[in-house]
Amino acid sequence: MPEGGAPAPDAARRGPVEDGGRDTTAGRAEADQGAAEGALRARRRTGLLVTLILGGLTATPPLAMDMYLPSLPEVTRSLHAPAATVQLTLTACLAGMAFGQLVVGPMSDRWGRRRPLLAGLAVYVVATVLCALAPTVEALVAFRLAQGLAGAAGIVIARAVVRDLYDGVAMARFFSTLMLVSGVAPVVAPLIGGQILRVTDWRGVFVVLAAVGVGLAALVAARLPETLAPAERHSGGGGEALRAMRGLLADRRFAGYLLTGGFAFAALFAYISASPFVIQEIYGASPQTFSLLFGVNSVGLVAVGQLNGKVLVGRVRLDRVLAVGLTVVVLAATALLLMSTGVFGEVGLTPVAAALFVLMSAMGVTLPNAQSMALMRVRHSAGSAAALLGTSSFLIGAIASPLVGVAGEDTAVPMAVVQLTAALVAAACFVGLCRPWADRAAEDGGPARAASRPGEDS
User: Fold this and answer.
1) pLDDT digit of tens for each residue in the chain (458 aa)?
2) The dihedral sign for the CA sequence 37, 43, 44, 45
3) Terminal CA-CA length for the chain
């Protein structure tokens, strides 16, 4: 793998060209140099296109979830169903995305990345079309579950492809780039959904989602190469996949980074679940003000993520950046708890919004670096590792989300308590399991192996 972790083209790996066992001539060497330069240019073009494809795969889940949100009242009226039952369509999609990763990840380790991804996208398109045709709310819940299960392929395989192509600081930079997409998609998705409803009904939202799936599948089929070599694939079935996952979870540091990222994600989920209620109902902001603040917070997350990828990664050790991010999240959550309990007296929306902005922005260094450090522990089971990372984040976040409303509608204390608790548990997992102060050279098998982990030891 070339310097910086970028993937090397096949031409760069073949070594000297031979002609009938004889050494290459000067003219052949000059031609090879020109071919290598052309391959480098092609690799850069391919890298940009692959980045866009992986970004599209990363954006598919938030699009499937959030483009549908503005149409919930219309679905309730159209299918003559109670609101609580219609809400199950969101729960089913989220559950499908969580558990589907556990299936698709090991499949991609066995059969390569392309085939499971294309199969998942095909099922996603079919399930989305069926959602548009659903005659009852029960059928819609079932089809949304299938949509989530199939859509999980994009989440988990995108991470596995990044691990195949990059290592060390380059992988951390790439995850920061994907954070740009995953941060923007939830903001624009409801706006797109609202505009679609101006010209069609809720079924049209699913038609648009299906069209996006078809376009993405065509791009993957035409332009995304297979990134897992046959020699690196697993030949076993479900038993080997379970053993691989068990081995990953037995790796103390991998488990530490998995839990660190999962509980940090829970703090983010608590914000997403509670902020509409807290900002609008408790602090009296209008829906337009809430949308503006939500957008500003997302911009903060994206901006810090880009700062992480463009400036910090490669200059500052990843575990140090992760430690700073966790510290900021804990401090921001503590400030929110103090304000919501009245320690500072009556506070308005501005201090609360500022604390939420700081917390969200810190996620821009916390989440991508936790994922990168976890995947650096993996060599031959990137699909299974990505599945564990994604599923744990979804499940921990899903458990945390209902807790923000346990004390009723008159206080923001539950949101702040959940966020602070999740942040403290994330920090405890980082310190207790990852042990960033430990001697990496001794722990990883000596100086030579330690030096092979540039993200940890640079």
Assistant:
1) 443 444 443 333 333 333 444 444 445 545 445 444 444 344 444 477 788 888 889 888 878 887 887 787 788 889 998 877 887 888 788 889 888 988 898 899 888 999 999 999 999 999 999 999 999 999 999 999 999 999 999 989 998 898 888 887 788 888 877 767 766 776 677 778 888 888 999 999 999 999 999 999 999 999 898 988 888 887 766 677 778 788 888 999 999 999 999 999 889 888 877 777 788 778 888 877 877 887 788 889 888 988 988 888 888 888 899 999 999 999 999 999 999 888 888 888 899 999 999 999 999 899 989 988 998 888 777 888 888 988 888 888 777 777 776 655 567 888 899 999 999 999 999 999 998 776 454 444 443 333 334 344 33
2) positive
3) 17
Q: Is 376 exposed, middle or buried (0-12, 13-18, 19+ CB in 10 A)?
A: buried
389 in Cβ contact with 371 (< 8 Å)? yes
Closest Cα partner for 424 from 235, 259, 299, 228?
Answer: 259
Indicate the pTM of the whole model: 0.71
| Beta bridge pairs of residue 22 | 19
Query: What DSSP string describes 283-342?
Result: S---HHHHHHHHHHHHHHHHHHHHHIIIIIBTTB-HHHHHHHHHHHHHHHHHHHHHHHTT
Alpha-carbon separation of residue 76 from 71, 85, 322 (angstroms): 9, 9, 43
Could you count the other beta carbons within 10 Å of the beta carbon of residue 165?
20
Task: Decide if 66 contacts 190 (C-beta within 8 A).
Answer: yes
User: How far apart, in whole angstroms, are the C-alpha atoms of residue 68 and residue 426?
Assistant: 31
Q: How many CA atoms lie within 13 A of 171 on its CB side?
A: 28
Q: Are 81 and 137 in contact (CB under 8 A)?
A: yes
Closest CA to 189 of 101, 116, 295: 295
Distance CA 297, CA 148 (A): 26
Structure tokens at 376: 């650096």
